[in-house]
Inverse folding.
């Protein structure tokens, strides 16, 4: 066995045993184990890691552990440009296309509301989520550590919060998504873009009160749901302004491009 000294920073401590929180500690690992295997053996999914320093030098996940190594492990950095040091993956983590696991349907809907391409299907097994994430360049969102501990997964976020609104705020802040939001540009149900539609084309599908009150409508080419800017849209707009930051939400080109109140036939 090899003995190395580890130190994990910030939210990575949430995955560790309490006695290892925010302190250096020694841990045993198999001789010639990779640093990725050593980190995951301690409970931290590799997808949560952005930077690894071994004896002060940046390394990638394939680094082979040596006896006496000192390992510092960091999560995604929010305030500092560390691009010259990055070694753990060939491209940035912050690519705002997502796939959510079966426990995060509420979060998926909020991300779509904000205009972020987010796949979600309650029945997808872990293998399907991993496959689609890899083939389509998506970030996996999950509360299941086991889903992340697979060498084929390169971009993912473990979601700490339990309630959808708190989860949404966590992901927006962690991945700095506020300036990239395009509210109300995607269908909340099937994730496809919305397009403006003439009222005359869909008036026979609208309740009489809606047809009499509103003039502007949007339609999803996939599921054919019709959207308009009703009271539900106003509540969602205010929610997004609060969560994304008022400036981001109010200046987004997508704000006002379709309302989440809907009629479906």
């Amino acid at each position: 066995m090899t003995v190395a000294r580890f130190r994990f920073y910030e939210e990575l401590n949430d995955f560790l045993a309490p006695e290892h929180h925010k302190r250096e500690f020694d841990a045993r690992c198999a001789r010639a184990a990779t640093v990725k295997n050593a980190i995951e053996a301690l409970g931290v999914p590799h997808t949560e890691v952005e930077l690894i320093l071994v004896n002060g030098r940046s390394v990638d996940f394939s680094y082979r552990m040596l006896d006496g190594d000192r390992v510092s492990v960091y999560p995604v950095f929010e305030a500092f440009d560390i691009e010259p040091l990055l070694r753990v993956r060939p491209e940035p983590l912050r690519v705002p296309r997502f796939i959510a696991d079966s426990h995060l349907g509420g979060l998926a809907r909020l991300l779509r509301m904000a205009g972020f391409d987010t796949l979600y299907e309650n029945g997808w097994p872990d293998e399907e989520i991993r496959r689609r994430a890899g083939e389509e360049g998506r970030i996996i969102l999950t509360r299941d550590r086991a889903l992340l501990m697979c060498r084929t997964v390169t971009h993912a976020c473990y979601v700490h919060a339990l309630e959808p609104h708190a989860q949404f705020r966590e992901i927006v802040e962690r991945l700095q998504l506020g300036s990239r939001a395009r509210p109300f540009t995607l269908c909340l149900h099937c994730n496809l873009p919305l397009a403006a539609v003439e009222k005359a084309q869909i008036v026979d599908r609208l309740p009489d009160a809606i047809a009499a009150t509103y003039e502007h409508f949007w339609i999803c080419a996939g599921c054919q749901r019709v959207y308009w800017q009703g009271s539900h849209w106003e509540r969602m707009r205010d929610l997004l302004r609060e969560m994304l930051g008022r400036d981001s939400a109010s200046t987004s080109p997508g704000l006002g491009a379709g309302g989440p109140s809907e009629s479906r036939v």
User: Anything to note?
Assistant: The chain has nine helices and 13 strands.
